[in-house]
Design goal:
By secondary structure, the protein is α/β, with parallel strands linked by helices. It contains 14 helices and ten strands.
């Protein structure tokens, strides 16, 4: 029986792109088992190691992914750096035998020698996949074709506008999308209500359908967005309406509302300091005032940080733009919120 072939490749995968996928897929076609080592590399990218590792695991379930949280950050071809990298990889493998080392980089030669493995170079001149992580980090939208949708959606910042009815969410979401040349997600609940309400009411199950339909459309729009997706309301709003109408919420809706705490990168709360615009789907200015306080209290209870927006449309637009100029995806918001 022939010996088992075990392949190894490594990198920062910041982000994981079609060129990386080509290396992985080539290796999977040639070996019995493939190990991918992924480095933390905070000096290169803010995208957490766990997120980048998840991309690989989701796209290639058969691959064994090793997260190198303590891997050396030095890169180059000096003897010292080479020895440091080789020592780390050998220690991480813990004696596991590697028969083939896959890469498209210069380090393939010395790493293969250290592993006692075949130096398997894949598209080293980038002829089949002329792309790099630096290129994608510099212009994600323009290079969208070079990354899988699984990766692309995780690189888009999701910005949601919350607030009671008639607090300017729709107008602001549309305006910000226009300003930043991207797309926005309208409130699906309004469309659904117009088509399905009976005597101005929806059932608990229908409110779940609103939240699910909104999320499905939101996911599709992520793949059309340029850097940011602006969202008009989310499942928390639907959850609040459910309690307003029924005094309770379906367990599915409760679960979807809970996930909102980690789904959105930035949350803006549009305040009720603008004139009330009465429409058939709204229940009056007094209820707007009450609902607004309930939404703010719910966000505080869920420990979801939010930024209040007051004043005219132009004043709100300027504040949102000011926040976005300082914000970076996967950054710690307390770092930049505390800056002067």
């Amino acid at each position: 029986m022939p010996d088992k072939k075990t392949g190894l490749t490594l990198g920062k995968f910041a982000p994981f792109h079609r060129g990386h996928q080509h290396v992985v897929e080539t290796a999977l076609a040639e070996v019995d088992h493939l190990i991918v080592v992924i480095y933390d590399s905070p000096e290169v990218t803010r995208v957490p190691l766990s997120v980048r590792a998840r991309w690989i695991r989701k796209l290639y379930p058969a691959v064994e992914v090793l997260e190198a949280w303590d891997g050396p950050s030095d890169s180059g071809d000096t003897p010292e750096i080479k020895r440091k990298q080789e020592h780390y990889i050998l220690g991480l493998l813990g004696g596991q035998k590697i028969t083939h080392f896959y890469s498209s980089e210069f380090y393939g030669e010395h790493m293969s020698e250290a592993l006692g493995a075949v130096n398997r170079q894949v598209d080293p001149h980038r002829e089949n996949f002329p792309v790099s992580g630096t290129q994608i980090r510099g212009a994600l939208y323009e290079n969208q074709s070079w990354v899988d949708p699984v990766v692309y959606r995780d690189l888009i910042s999701k910005v949601v506008f919350l607030g009671a009815p008639s607090t300017g969410k729709t107008t602001l979401a549309a305006r910000m999308a226009e300003e930043l040349h991207t797309v926005w997600m309208p409130e699906y609940g309004r469309e659904y209500w117009e088509q399905n309400q009976i005597e101005r009411r929806l059932t608990l199950e229908q409110l779940v359908e609103i939240a699910e339909g909104h999320l499905e459309r939101e996911e599709r729009l992520l793949l059309e967005a340029k850097d940011m997706l602006f969202v008009d309301t989310n499942a928390i709003t639907t959850f609040m309406f459910s309690h307003y109408y029924h005094g309770s919420a379906h367990p599915k809706l409760e679960a979807m509302a809970a996930k909102c705490a980690s789904r959105y990168d930035l949350v803006f709360l549009c305040e009720d300091d603008i004139p009330y615009d009465d429409t058939p789907d709204r229940s009056g200015e007094v209820n707007r005032y009450t609902f607004q306080k309930q939404i703010a209290a719910d966000l505080i209870e869920r420990k979801i940080p939010f930024i209040p927006l007051r004043g005219s449309l132009e004043e709100r637009v300027e504040l949102v733009k000011e926040v976005l100029e300082r914000y970076e995806k996967y950054s710690n918001p307390y770092e930049w919120m505390g800056e002067s």
